[in-house]
Every structure is written in C-alpha cells, then in structure tokens.
From TrEMBL:
Pfam families to which the protein is assigned, alphabetical: TPR_DNAAF5
Domain Dynein axonemal assembly factor 5 TPR repeats span(s) in chain numbering: 94-290
Source organism: Monopterus albus (Swamp eel)
Protein name per UniProt: Dynein axonemal assembly factor 5 TPR repeats domain-containing protein
Entry-linked Gene3D superfamilies: Leucine-rich Repeat Variant
ARM repeats: 220-244
Stored InterPro entries: ARM-like, ARM-type_fold, Armadillo, RSP14, TPR_DAAF5
Length: 340
C-alpha cells in the first residue's frame, strides 16, 4: 500500500520494509522524471539509519552505477546526493568502498554540470575521511591536482582540497610528485578563507616529507605562510603554523624565516589568550611553540628568544594551562638554554 503523494517532486513512498525496494525498482523505469522523483524520496529516507542499513545490505547500491552515467544531469546530481547521505555513516562508506562506484564517481569530476562535479566531490570527500578509503583514493590524487587548476566553484575547490589533504596524510608522495606544493601554493592567497584553510592543511601534509619542506622553501612560499600567521581566520593561521613547524626543521627554512621576522609573530600567537575553539587554539599554540623550538637551534634565533624566556616560562608553569602546551614550552626553554 503506497503512501499519499503530497509533494509532486517526490515518488509515493510505500509503507514499512517495502519502501526502499520499491523506490529502487522505480529507478529502473525509462522515464527521467520518475527516476528523479524516486531519487528524491530515497534521499528523504536516507536520514533514517535503518533505511541506510536496508539499502546497503539489500544489494541496492550497485544500481547507482547506471544512474551516475544517466544522460540527465539532475539524475546524476541527485544520485550523488543519495550516495553522500549514505557515506555520512560508517556502514555506507564501507559499502561504497567495496562497490564498483568509484570509477563512475571519478568520471563525474569532468562533468559539464557544476552541480554534478560538486556532488561527486562531496561523496569523495566524505569517503576520504575513512583511512582505508583515503588510501584507496590515492590513485585519484593526480587527477584531483589537475582539477585544482580548472575548478572555479568555491565549494568544489574546498572539497577537492580537503580530499587531497585526507589522502596526503596517508601518503604525501602522489601529490608531491604532481607538483602539489606549487599548485597548492597558488591557493594560499585566495580571497576565500575556506580555500586558504584547506590549501594550508594540504600543504601541511606534504611538508611532513623532506622533499615537501624543500619545495616550500624553494617555491618562495615562506613569505606567504608567515603572512598567513596573521590571517583573520584562526584555522588558516593554525594550518600555516603547521606548515612552518615542519619546514623550520630545515636549516634553509630557519634562515629564511628569521630574515622574514617570524619570531615576534610566533611569540604573539603563543602569548595570545583570546577565547577560541579549544582544539584549534591548542593546535595553533603547539605548532608555534614547536616552530620557536626549531628556530632556537639557530644562533640568531636563540639570541632573540633568550630575551623572551619569561613569556615561555609563564606558558610552561601556568597550572591552568593544557599539559601538552606546558610540555612544548618546557622543551623550547630547554633548547634555548642548552644552546646558550
């Protein structure tokens, strides 16, 4: 028995356990409008975890393959929305990873419809948050880097950068070998704080490797990153500090950043006590303290930091301070004093 059709953009939804099977059956019909309406109703149902479980375990997911290649862009977009809702749950991500849907999803990155491309990016980004999936998506990184220079939609760029970041945390080499530092570097000065944030996050993943650190130094990106330490967006600041934390391990990175006058900027970030999201605030201070510790290994850096020991001592002794921050400040003090 079917429910009452109230919204003409939705297909009538059968009651009980027949809802998902019948709606997926509707997707086999040749009428485009019928497929769109069935997809819209299925998306409504996917807000119920029980329906997600039924979809995944009922073997219905593979039907989406043909829909991802449907001639109608609205059907392709709505199919991406359905998959995005599924991948919002662990069981859905695992099922999609085991399916044959990744190739047609990756093909949608070249779709003429911006809504289709963005929809595909949503699915891949959600999927990449699962470590096993991020590893499986590493083969897509060269294509993602190429798309970075072509995609104009801000939302799609943010999702793309975020996916690259997740994948590069698993293995930075694919992005590094595809001129990743240079491509990401162009995004660090973007007008959108969301794009700056994600570009810096991906850059941080690449700078874990020595080759990434060297490319950051050689690509004249340190002035941009030091400037981002004073960005209006706290997460942009934090990710830029993370890149610098890694890059300052290199002697070249130390020298170049000292010439840029980075120490007062980092000290300001360490000193600042304004209210912010605790997790982000902690990361920013930790990254800044670790960057200062690396700078203390250089004679010029040590000389400047000896004058700032009282600030670091306060950070290391404050009883209300986070333990990780206290320990990072204590490490910085030991390096400064040992070097002196």
């Amino acid at each position: 028995m079917a429910g009452v059709l109230i919204d003409p953009s939705r297909a009538p939804v059968p009651f009980g356990r027949w809802a998902v099977p019948q709606l997926f059956e509707e997707l086999r019909r040749p009428e485009t409008d019928g497929r769109r309406r069935a997809l819209a109703s299925l998306c409504d149902l996917m807000h119920d975890p029980e329906r997600i479980y039924q979809t995944v375990n009922g073997g219905f997911l593979e039907q989406c393959r043909d829909l991802l290649m449907d001639e109608d862009p609205s059907v392709r977009t709505e199919t991406c929305e359905l998959l995005n809702l599924l991948t919002g749950h662990a069981i859905g991500r695992q099922a999609l990873l085991s399916s044959s849907l990744l190739p047609p999803l990756s093909q949608l990155l070249d779709d003429d419809s911006s809504s289709c491309r963005t929809g595909a990016h949503h699915v891949l980004n959600c999927l990449a948050q699962l470590p096993a999936a991020a590893e499986a998506l590493l083969s897509l990184v060269p294509k993602l880097m190429l798309k970075l220079g072509e995609e104009e939609e801000e939302e799609a760029q943010v999702l793309l950068l975020s996916t690259v970041s997740y994948c590069s945390r698993m293995d930075p080499l694919p992005a590094l070998s595809y001129d990743g530092v240079s491509l990401l570097g162009h995004k660090l000065s973007h007008r959108s704080p969301n794009i700056r944030r994600e570009a810096a996050a991906a850059m941080m993943a690449l700078s874990v490797l020595d080759d990434g650190k060297r490319q950051v130094c050689e690509g004249a990106l340190l002035p941009v990153l030091v400037h981002l330490l004073q960005d209006d967006n706290l997460e942009v600041q934090t990710n830029a500090a993370g890149v610098l934390m890694y890059t300052l391990i290199l002697t070249t990175g130390k020298q170049l950043c000292l010439e840029l006058g980075i120490i007062p900027v980092l000290l300001h970030l360490v000193k600042r006590d304004e209210q912010a999201e605790e997790k982000v605030r902690k990361a920013l201070i930790l990254y800044s303290l670790r960057a200062l510790t690396s700078l203390a290994e250089a004679p010029d850096g040590r000389h400047l930091l000896l004058e700032q020991l009282p600030l670091l001592v306060r950070r290391s002794e404050a009883p209300e301070e986070d333990q990780d921050i206290r320990q990072a400040a204590q490490t910085a003090i030991r390096v400064i004093n040992r070097a002196s």
